[in-house]
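Notebook entry, structure prediction.
Reason for the run: the old model in the group folder had no record of what sequence produced it. Starting over properly, with the input documented here first.
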Amino acid sequence: MRMRSIALLGALTLGLTACSSEKLNVPNYNSPSVDALSKDPNGIQLLATGILVAERGGLAGQTRDFGVFGREVYNYFTTDGRTVQNYLVGLANPQRLDPGGFANGLWSGRYQNMKNALTLVEAANASNLSTAQKSAVAGWAKTWYALNLLYLVQSRDTLGVPVDIPTTPSSPSPFVSRDSAYKRAIAELDEAKGNLQAGGTAFPFSMHSGFAGFDTPANFLKFNRALAAKANVIRGSTGCGNPCYTAAVTNLGESFISTSATMASLNLGPYHIYSTAAGDGTNANSFVQQNYVYAHKQAVTLAQKQPDGVTADDRVVRKLVQLATPVSPPGNQNIAAEYRFDIYPSPSSPAPIIRNEELLLLRAEANWALGNTTAALADLNIVRTTSGKLAPLGTLATGATGLDAIMYEKHLSLLFEGTRWVDMRRWGRLGQLPIDTPGMFVAKVMPIPQAECDARRPIGAPASVLPRGCEGNL
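New structure, fully documented this time:
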């Protein structure tokens, strides 16, 4: 079913059943109250659908931005050179991204959907749902709250982020450190786990087909555990160490991870869905939809050969198409694109939130960090031989050489899925990303938006006063 169909059905149902003056007093869905939504039979469904729509809407831009920073993607929007200048050159002295420019996004929408998740829980708790159903809603909503927090801290990293939604806009929540943000996201996911376990056999709302196999509390919990594993692996690599890696291995054992060596198994996971139907949303990262998003050639340059010694890694063969003629960006910064992506062949192509292929690579990294290289090698080779059609590795070294092997598999397996920049930063390897032409740089973090900093500055304070969290913009 299309994403808008649930909301439209709810609106139509209200109209068709309105047979008295009392029934004509329906909620204002443009400015709903928790009380009104909790009393309307369609309210919980509409809120849940709204969260899914917002999540889908934010994915394409995030994947594209992270891809540009991680030297996977070029955005050559034909009439505006800022899609190159703002991301790859930025401001000078010191060189950084402009907090008032194109590369400061992925902020307010995430907090808006975190607020939506809280509203959903409030509405469910005020409704006549059963105790189990309320618990299921809470586990579902908290999982999305945590995922948005993970997206935020991945984009801002050492700048930190606020982790709470304030009760009043005039009293913004404080920034917390990167580690505290990851800890909060993991705690939220763990709390959601308990809610989902007490959530009975079904959610009191439906989800679209992208969640087939993840549409009950028990199965959605596997998605929740996958996210917890990813958060723990990232946190493990930024200072937590073995306790987080051990937790990640445990999380993955509770997730949907599978060692079946097929592409269908590697692609298993929840997806955002799109369509070209009227009123629905399309996949903006499809070249058919937006034909100015190109692929950086680094993946081709680094690709290893299949056993025939001629054919490139099948992940490159499947995912990239060489252009008949290289395309230069607006402003002609001398970085002509030679390839485009074929990962999303149509505007209706689904986009993964997290796939089994990533879970195997996360477990490989966690086990490698723990010194369990035999277990790590087994997972790495499932991905390498199935997705890349490469010969298996005989050993997996410890130290930098072992990380090189993991880094290669993650790069090509998760190409244009928003992980490369985050991985290279947490591994301390941003310096290995290419500088395509003199004057460019690799951004370490996205800046806190200038509007956020201005709103936090005390009234009457000069612009030189930088609120907590905004110091890193300089």
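Summary: The chain has 17 helices and eight strands.
The old model has been moved to the deprecated folder.
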